[in-house]
Design a protein that fits this description.
single chain, alpha/beta, 12 helices, 11 strands, globular
Length: about 325
């Protein structure tokens, strides 16, 4: 049984001083010793991390512990730089895209990477994803919005069409969460806004009619089990049936579009996984752990492996087969 984890994150051990180069507050790594560090944003702590983020031997050891054959890593969204001038975001993307391949070089058969792009400039974004696919990345990670532009923005649709054209699989990760001023404690932006952001991004593509215009060859996956959408899809269908303003740009029942996208399995609960399989189908779910962060699955694949309701064939699809097809991994 081949196991592929499609959702894990990295930080390089170090990177150039972006504040000195561009001015303003930028992420940087403050090492605290014994394989631990604090990602800083200017002079403020952002996130504690460990050497699992940058040390391939540690990552591979954890993969061996959990029986993971291949892990696909992507940058942490704080590195996107969508709010910066596009030329700066492109320079940053190249730094971290090349750093990701440097980490993967330790075991390129087991470690794969998604690139990032300056999504605020579609021409630059298309050029960078093309460069990265030629250099060995297996796809691209994007945030679910750029400022106030959701995924139904015409420029972003153009980018997604380009990804389909060049065979770049897309992972959409929520970031820059809504209403953070109302959620100052308890990691509530990650617990409440992240699932909502993901539902918003999926519905932006469905209700705008964007999926009608995008090629079916586009491979697009949404993190964290599709956020709150699988649980609330019935509500969306009900609204489409009874309110013309919901369906004005969407010719089909929203639930009919679940065959146009994928989700990962990071839902952390057997009942939630059963619901996800019921809503999405066994061919549209891939193992995703969110390794190596505290909100990730601490024993990668445990939920899927121990889910008694899954047949052996369904379990294998979720653990590896779907991902190998999605990312064209031989």
């Amino acid at each position: 049984m081949q196991i592929v984890d499609i959702h894990s994150h990295f930080f390089p051990k170090d990177w150039p001083d972006l504040a000195s180069r561009f001015g303003g507050d930028w992420p940087w790594m403050k090492h605290t010793g014994q394989g631990k560090a604090m990602v800083m944003m200017g002079d403020k702590p952002f996130r504690p991390v460990t050497e699992a983020c940058w040390e391939p031997s540690v990552r591979l050891e954890d993969m061996d512990r959990d029986g993971v054959d291949i892990q696909i890593m992507c940058a942490t969204p704080v590195l996107f730089a969508y709010q910066r001038p596009a030329e700066q975001a492109l320079a940053v993307a190249r730094i971290f895209n090349d750093a990701a391949l440097d980490i993967c070089a330790a075991r390129p058969d087991r470690l794969k990477a998604l690139c990032q792009v300056p999504l605020q400039d579609i021409d630059l974004a298309c050029a960078e994803v093309s460069r990265c696919m030629e250099n060995g990345h297996v796809g691209v990670q994007i945030g679910n919005h750029v400022g106030n532009k959701n995924l139904d923005d015409e420029g972003i649709i153009t980018f997604l069409h380009h990804c389909a054209d060049i065979g770049a699989s897309v992972l959409v990760h929520p970031w820059d969460m809504m209403a953070q001023e109302r959620m100052p404690k308890y990691m509530l932006p990650w617990l409440v806004s992240m699932p909502a952001e993901t539902q918003l991004s999926i519905l932006s593509l469905i209700l705008s009619g964007a999926f009608e215009r995008l090629p079916e060859s586009l491979k697009i996956c949404f993190a964290h089990g599709g956020g709150s959408l699988p649980y609330l899809l019935g509500r969306v269908d009900n609204a489409w049936l009874h309110r013309d303003i919901v369906r004005e740009d969407c010719p089909r029942l929203p639930s009919e579009y679940v065959n146009r996208f994928y989700v990962d399995s990071a839902v952390f609960n057997p009942g939630a996984l059963d619901l996800l399989v019921n809503v999405m189908g066994e061919d549209r779910i891939m193992l995703g752990s969110d390794y190596p962060f505290p909100l990730g699955e601490q024993q990668i694949g445990k939920l899927v492996k121990e889910q008694k309701s899954l047949t052996g064939e369904t379990r294998q699809k979720i653990l590896g087969t779907n991902a190998r097809n999605f990312f064209n991994i031989a």
